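Open question from group meeting: does this chain pack into something compact, or does most of it stay loose? Before anyone orders reagents, we agreed to write out a predicted structure and look at it together. Recording both the input and the output here so the notebook holds the full record.
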Amino acid sequence: MFAVAGYVAAAQAELPTVQLNAGMYLIHAEVAADMGSRMQGLMHRKSMPANAGMLFIFDEASTQCMWMKNTYVPLSVAFLDESGAILNIADMQPQTEQSHCSSGPARYALEMNQGWFAQRGIKPGTKLGGLEKLRRR
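Structure tokens returned:
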């Protein structure tokens, strides 16, 4: 059990990061860009810093769905289109397998602590900055 927990922590620590912004709000996001890191997501974590999150990058824009299996932190997920505009935001409860899906073709999903978007008045239509850094890699 300890070896698995250590592996999970090590694997998560190795993810690249990107700084994004929603207007004046800065976001420090870990980047989950391959199948393995997207499947792992934020599983098994007990907390997340206030302005930190995880950005999921999908291979193509399509309907994307997220769930909270083995995830202990309540999260809000914003689904983003190819240009970085928020399509919809969903609040997700810990340790559930309920699917939360994008309202249209999403290329990205950004998970933040639950309520982060609402507390800052960030709504569908808001465009996130910083995604262009990912396209240059």
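Observations to bring back to the group:
Helices lie at 2-13, 35-40, 116-119, 132-135.
The chain has four helices and eight strands.
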